[in-house]
Design brief:
Blueprint: E1 23-27, H1 34-48, E2 51-58, H2 67-96, E3 101-106, H3 109-119, E4 123-129, H4 139-144, H5 147-151, E5 156-159, H6 165-169
Parallel strand pairs: 1-2, 1-4, 2-3, 4-5
Helix pairs in contact: 1-2
Region (Disordered): 1-21
Protein name: Nucleotide-binding universal stress UspA family protein
Domain UspA: 24-137
Length: 172
C-alpha cells in the first residue's frame, strides 16, 4: 500500500464529470436581431459540441375567424413557420456542424418558450438579442427582468445590439 495521495490536476480540483452537450434555444421571429442570436447560438454550439434548438411560435390571431377560415389561416401560418425554420436551419447546420432541433408551437410566445424549456430538459440556455434603436431592448428581453425571467429555468444570454458578425464569431 502506498502513502501517496492520488495526483490532482493543476489548481487542486478533481476533474469534473462529463456533462451533456449544451443546447441553445433561439426564438425565431421576424426581427432583424434574431439573426444575431441565431449566429451566437450556432457559434457557441460548435465551440462546445452542443446544438441549437429553434422555436417559432404562431400566435393566435387578434380576432377569431369563422370555423374553416380561421383553421385555414392557422394551418398556413404553421406551414410558413416550418418553411422558415427549414431555410434558417441550413445556415445553423453549416455554422454549428449540427442539425438543429426545430419546433413550431401555437400559442402565446412567453408561454410557449416556458413550455419548450420544461418539455426539453436538454435545453441549457435561451439566447436572445437586444433590439437596435430608441424603442428599448424588445419585449422579450424586458420580460426577462419580470415574471417571465423568474419562471425560466435556464440562463438567458442577451446579445448586445451593436455586435458585428465578426465579434460574435470570436465566441466560437
Amino acid at each position: 500500500m502506498s502513502d501517496e495521495t492520488p495526483s490532482r490536476p493543476a489548481g487542486g480540483r478533481a476533474p469534473a464529470p462529463m456533462s451533456p452537450p449544451l443546447t441553445f434555444l433561439v426564438v425565431v421571429d421576424d426581427t432583424e436581431e434574431m439573426h444575431q442570436a441565431l449566429r451566437f447560438a450556432s457559434v457557441r454550439a460548435r465551440a462546445t459540441g452542443g446544438r441549437v434548438a429553434m422555436l417559432r411560435v404562431v400566435e393566435p390571431p387578434d380576432f377569431q375567424h369563422f370555423g374553416f377560415v380561421g383553421e385555414q389561416m392557422q394551418r398556413e401560418a404553421r406551414e410558413e413557420a416550418e418553411r422558415l425554420l427549414q431555410r434558417l436551419a441550413a445556415g445553423v447546420n453549416k455554422r454549428s456542424r449540427q442539425t438543429p432541433m426545430l419546433e413550431v408551437r401555437e400559442g402565446l410566445l412567453v408561454d410557449q418558450i416556458l413550455e419548450v424549456v420544461a418539455d426539453e430538459p436538454e435545453i441549457s440556455a435561451l439566447v436572445v438579442a437586444a433590439r437596435k434603436g430608441k424603442k428599448g431592448p424588445g419585449p422579450l428581453i424586458a420580460g426577462l427582468a419580470g415574471s417571465f425571467g423568474a419562471r425560466l429555468r435556464v440562463p438567458a444570454i442577451v446579445i448586445p445590439a451593436g455586435l458585428t458578425d465578426e465579434e460574435i464569431d470570436r465566441f466560437g
